[in-house]
Amino acid sequence: MLRHEFQPGKLIAGIFVTIAGVTYLGDAGDAWETPWFAVIPLLVLGLALAGVVAGLTGAVRRRRKNRRAAAEAAGPTEATGSSDTAKIPN
Question: Which of 13, 23, 30, 65 is the most buried (most CB within 10 A)?
């Protein structure tokens, strides 16, 4: 199987949809009574949270990619850290 990047937004969405499915499954199996409208807020909350997490994940990945590209373009001295801090005596 090919490796892929971890996508926490999709994980959160999947968890909330699974919880909604289990809720309806329990209702269908007569384990408890669930009103038809009870899952809507759960799904809305889960999808909103997944969207926020996916947006934050994308922003962090873009920032890391830009920093890495800037460090590679600046040369090896900038990528390893500031050379000024090495010259300061203790």
Answer: 13
**Residue owning tokens 């969405």:** 13
Q: Which residue reads 């090896």 in tokens?
A: 76
Which residues, including other chains, have CB under 8 Å from residue 87's CB and lie 6 or more apart? none
Torsion angle defined by CA atoms of residues 9, 14, 15 and 17, in that order, rounded to the nearest 10 degrees: 130
pTM for the whole structure = 0.73
| Each residue's pLDDT tens digit, 3-55 | 888 999 999 999 999 999 999 999 999 999 999 899 999 999 999 999 999 99
Helix axes 39-74, 8-28, angle to 10 degrees: 170
Closest CA to 19 of 49, 55, 51, 52: 49
Other CB atoms within a 10 A radius of the CB of residue 17 amount to 16
